[in-house]
Design a protein that fits this description.
- With 401 residues, the protein is α/β, with parallel strands linked by helices.
- Helix content is 27%, strand content 26%.
- It is built from 9 helices and 25 strands.
- Helix 1 (10-25) runs parallel beside helix 7 (308-327).
- It starts with a strand and ends in a 10-residue tail after the last helix.
- The mean pLDDT is 95.
Length: 401
């Protein structure tokens, strides 16, 4: 028997850990139940931190952890899924092709930044979505020091006033002062089509966010969008132009394209609709998790968000349940009633809220310490020690805030 997990992000990592944990509890050998994880690299990209400087350092190796729990790592890109024959086509290194059969499949392919067909976006826009994107932005910011000190050089436009856009924007002033000098006349502008900043955060946290932006001198242009980009800046939907050599796109997410290989229903973000066990109901033997799945967190209408907080716990339930079906034991319905947010606000600190109603619990330096602990400790892989790694993946305890 074989479980194939596609993706080495937070959901894929915890799916592998949790499946291996249940296999171990049931006393089943790796030879009888193989768990295989497919990814281009055996590395966790710490994606929630990609707005920070030195993004090339924001990864964590997984090879030793996978070896410790007897999970097979398969290097390559999953290109196609045949759910009828239960086979995954993998593009391996040096152009080799590999077919991998499965008894249960866990789709943990994550999400990608939504890049609409805005003229000039592909050529002139930056992002903090994937590791290579964040590295390109970091290099660009450092190269600004070699350019003439124009208004455009000193202006950064962030398209998108949600969680990612705010974190990227509030980190920019300190990053650029280290590059251009502490007295550089910087200008950072957030542009968003919504009429309020941080539309998903609600009215409670918003005044704190607005005050932090004022403190950092960050402008917000609301009710307008980016209509076009060129090398000199952006043209807004209102017709106004902003001179800028740095435009960071942070306007929405979509499930990774591989979810389209599964013949099942998806939501407006491309996520596969799953049942409470994270199965794709219409397709035999397939589970979806993390940003690839639209999953109910509770019985009152809350659904998992595209966040590592939800992906880790969803991954643990998906891996456990895929193994449970093959081992003939009971599955565990996914649930995640606890929900917190911790929004980095750069030199203005951070904002910590609890619950779907976003009740503010901590602000400023206190919240910043929590954010740093989350970013540098909580979301990293467990140590490559078998017992500890397996113990970390109890679905009921993962991300139990």
């Amino acid at each position: 028997m074989r479980i194939v997990i596609i993706g080495a992000g937070f959901a894929g990592m915890y799916a592998a850990l949790s499946a291996a944990r249940l296999r171990d509890i049931q006393g089943v050998s790796p030879e009888k139940l193989e768990i295989a994880l497919v990814a281009p690299e055996p590395t966790l990209v710490v994606r929630p931190r990609l707005y920070e400087p030195k993004p090339e350092t924001l990864t964590a190796p997984l090879q030793d952890v996978l070896k410790a729990i007897d999970v097979v790592y398969i290097k390559g890109h999953a290109e196609a899924i045949d759910t009828n024959s239960k086979v995954v086509d993998i593009a391996a290194p040096q152009g080799a092709q590999k077919k991998l059969s499965y008894d249960r499949l866990v789709v943990a392919t994550g999400s990608r930044l939504f890049r609409p067909n805005v003229p000039g976006l592909a050529e002139h826009g930056f992002s903090v979505d994937q590791l290579e994107d964040a590295v390109a932005l970091d290099r660009h910011l450092h190269h600004l020091a070699n350019r003439p000190a124009t208004k455009g050089r000193n202006t950064v436009v962030v398209a998108g006033g949600g969680f990612t856009g705010i974190e990227a924007a509030t980190e920019v002033p300190s990053r650029l002062r280290k590059i251009l000098g502490k007295d550089a006349p910087l200008r950072v502008i957030i542009v968003d089509r919504n009429e309020a900043i941080a539309p998903d955060m609600g009215t409670g946290p918003r005044p704190i966010i607005e005050e932090a932006l004022r403190k950092l001198g960050i402008e917000t242009w609301l009710g307008v969008g980016v209509a076009a980009l060129d090398k000199s800046g952006v043209t807004l939907s209102s017709g106004e132009q902003i001179e800028s050599e740095t435009v960071i796109w942070a306007a929405g997410m979509r499930a990774a394209p591989l979810t389209a290989q599964i013949p099942a229903e998806r939501d407006q973000f491309g996520r596969l609709l799953v049942d409470r066990n994270l199965r794709v109901p219409s397709v035999n033997g397939v589970f979806a998790t993390g940003d690839a799945a639209r999953a109910a967190c509770d019985d009152v209408g809350n659904y998992a968000l595209m966040s590592c907080q939800h992906a880790t716990r969803m991954g643990a339930f998906a891996g456990n349940n895929a193994a449970a079906e093959l081992l003939g034991v009971s599955t565990r319905p996914y649930h995640q009633k606890a929900y917190v947010t911790c929004l980095d606000l750069g030199e203005a600190g951070a904002l910590f809220t609890r619950g779907w109603e976003r009740t503010v619990e901590m602000v400023g330096d206190v919240a910043k310490k929590t954010k740093q602990e989350i970013n540098t400790v909580w979301i990293y892989p467990p140590k490559a020690e078998r017992a500890a790694a397996l113990a970390s993946a109890d679905p009921e305890r993962v991300t139990a805030l």
